[in-house]
Amino acid sequence: MADSARKPSPGLIFHSDRASQYASDQVRAWLTARAMRQSMSGTGNCYDNAPMESFWHSMKVEETHGQDFATRAEATHCVFGYIEG
Length: 85
Hints:
The protein is mainly alpha-helical. It is built from 4 helices and 2 strands. It folds into 2 domains: 40 residues, no CATH class; 40 residues, no CATH class. The longest helix is centred in the C-terminal third of the chain and has 15 residues. It starts with a helix and ends with a helix.
C-alpha cells in the first residue's frame, strides 16, 4: 500500500466516503496505529468532499477514462501508478 511505500508523516489525513467499512473499529485501529487522522464527509454535504471528488475526477480523466482493463490487477496497477506518481 501507499503508506508502506511512502512512509507518510504523522497526522496524514485519510479521507473516505461514509461506507460502513471505513467506520469500522478495524479501520480506526489501523489508522491510529499509523498516526493517521480519519476524515469523512458529513451526510448530505457535497462540499465536504470537494477536494477528494476533484482528485478522483482528475485521475479518471487523466488516467483511466476510456480504458478497458483485462484484469483487476491491470486496473490496480494503473491506479496505483497514478497515485504513486
